[in-house]
Amino acid sequence: MFKEFPEGFLWGGATAANQLEGGFNLGGKGLSTSDMIPYIPKEERDGDNSVHITSEQYNQALNDPTNGNYPKRWGVDFYHRYKEDIALFGEMGFKSFRLSISWPRIFPNGDDLTPNEEGLAFYDAVFDELLKYNIEPVVTLSHYEMPVALIERYNGWTDRRLVDFFVKYAETVFNRYKNKVKYWLTFNEINAIALAPYNAGGLLHDRHENMEQSIYQALHHQFIASALTVKACREIIPGAQIGCMLARLETYPETCNPEDVLKTLQAEQMNFFYTDVQVRGKYPNYMNRFFKENGISLHLEPGDEEILLENTVDFISFSYYMSLVESAGPQGERAPGNLFSGLKNPYLESSDWGWQIDPIGLRVTLNKLYDRYQVPLFVVENGLGAIDTINENGQIEDDYRIDYLRKHFIQMREAIEDGVEVMGYTSWGCIDIISVSTSEVSKRYGFIYVDVDDLGQGTFERSKKKSFNWYKEVIKSNGTNLDG
User: Can you tell me the distance from the alpha carbon of 473 to that of 181, in angstroms, rounded to the nearest whole number?
Assistant: First the structure.
C-alpha cells in the first residue's frame, strides 16, 4: 500500500478545446489558429513537430470551409457528447477536469463588440454537467486557439491591441462563470511561442522580417495580458485561484564537464524565464543579456513594469512529459519530443513516439520549481501517448500506460514528502484526442478509447481501457492503491 496524497488533492484529467470539441463551424464559433493545422501522415513528417504554417498553407485552410484534412475541426465530438464524456469522468471519480474555453467560440473574430451567446451557453452547460458530478473545472483561457481574424487584422500577438481584446474576453467569462469556476489558467505552455510562434502567438514566419524580435514582443504582450487577467480575476471572482502554465523542460548536462553544466544552466534559465516574469513579476537579469546579445529591443509602455510586479499568479501549473539532455560539445543522437527535444539519454526508455520516459525527473522538477518560487504547483499535463490495440475480446490492455502513470505518481508522492506543495494532477488526454502537432489521433493518451482514426473515420463511440478502472481506484484511494 502506498502513502496517501494530501486531503483535497485534485485528481483528474486534462484536454484542450481545439483537440477535443469539434463543432468548428457550429454555435456561432469563428475559426481558430488550430482549425488551420492539417494532418501530417507519418511518412511525410520531417522530424520537426513545431507546427510551422506558411501563408500559403494558412490561406488554403482559410478558404476551405469543410472539415477537409483538418482533424481539429472535428476533434472527438465533445461538442455533442460532453454529457456522455463527463459521466465517464464522474464514474472515474474525477475531482477536477482541465479544459479550455475556445476564444473564437466566445468572440468569433476576437475583436467583436459583443460576445456570442451560443458559445457562452455551451460552456454554461458543460460546467453545470461537471458540477453535477462534483468535478471542479480547471479552465485555461488560451490553449493554442486564438481567433484567426486577429492574424488577418493585427498580425497576431505582435500588436498591442490584442491585450485589450484578450482582457475583454477574460472579463466576459469571469463574469459569466464566476459562480461555477474557481481555478483558472491564463496561457497554456506560454514558452511554446519560442518554437511554435504560429500555434502560440498567431505569427506566420513569412510575414515577419525578424521572427525572434516578433516572438519576444508578442510574448511581452502576452505577459501584460496575463497580468491584467490576473487582476481582473481577483476583482471579479474573490477567492478564485489563477495560475500560469509552463511546458517544463527538466534538463541534465551530458557530462560533468563544466561547459556542459553551464550550457544546461542556460537552457534551464530560458525555461524558468517565463515563470520568473509571471511569479516574481519582472524580467530576470539574464534575459537582459540575452536580448542585448541577440539584438532584441522590446517596446514597453509606461506602467508595464508595475503591471507585471503587482499582478503575479497564485500558483504554477505545468506540463511534464520527459527530460532533456544538453551538451556544449558535438551533438549526438537526439530524442524527439513534441515542441522541444534534446540529446538522447542512454539511461531512459522511450515511448512509441521516441519521447524519453523519466519519472524521477518529475520529482526533480517539482523540487526545483518549489525551491525557486515557493508557490503551490499543479501538474496539469502528463501522460503516455501510445498505439492502443483492441484485442480479440474487444478490450485494450494498456498496462504500459498504467506502468507509466504509477511510476510518475510514486515520484510525485516523493516530492510531496520532500515538502513540495502540490495541488493536484490532471492526466493529459484523459479521453483520446487529436495530437497538437501532427493532428493525429493514433497517438492515444486516454483512459477512454474513441473509435476514430487519423482521417476522421469511425463511429466516435467511447469505450473504457484497462487503465480506466485502475485510475478510478487510484482516485478512490487518494493514491494509496496504485496496483489496481
Answer: 26
Of 186, 144, 157, nearest to 51 (Cα)?
144
Known active-site residue 381: yes
Q: Is position 476 within any domain?
A: no
Q: What is the C-alpha separation between 39 and 45, in angstroms, rounded?
A: 10
Task: Quote the number of domains for the chain.
Answer: 1
Taking the C-alpha atoms of residue 44 and residue 46, their distance in angstroms, rounded to an integer, is 6
| pLDDT higher than 90, residue 332 | no
As a whole number of angstroms, the distance between CA 105 and CA 284 comes to 36
Does residue 4 fall inside a structural domain?
no
Phi, psi of 267 (to 5 degrees): -65, -40
Based on its alpha-carbon atoms, the radius of gyration of the chain, rounded to whole angstroms, reads 21
The CATH number for 241's domain is 3.20.20.80
Dump pLDDT digits (tens) for 171-224: 999 999 999 999 999 999 999 999 999 999 999 999 999 999 999 999 999 999
Strands (E), 276-390: 315-319, 324-326, 334-335, 342-343, 349-350, 356-357, 377-381
Which helix (H) or strand (E) element contains residue 177?
Answer: helix 161-177
In the block, which residue shows the cell 485552410? 61
Q: Which of 381, 392, 421, 461 is catalytic?
A: 381
Q: Roughly what angle, to the nearest 10 degrees, separates helices 117-132 and 78-92?
A: 20
Phi, psi (rounded to 5 degrees) for 328: -85, -10
Q: What is the pTM of this model?
A: 0.97
- Structural domain that includes position 187: 10-461
Q: Label the pairing between strands 334-335 and 342-343.
A: antiparallel
Does 473 fall in a domain? Answer: no
Q: Is residue 477 part of a domain?
A: no
55-83 pLDDT, tens digit each: 888 999 999 988 778 999 999 999 999 99
| 229-251 pLDDT, tens digit each | 999 999 999 999 999 999 999 99
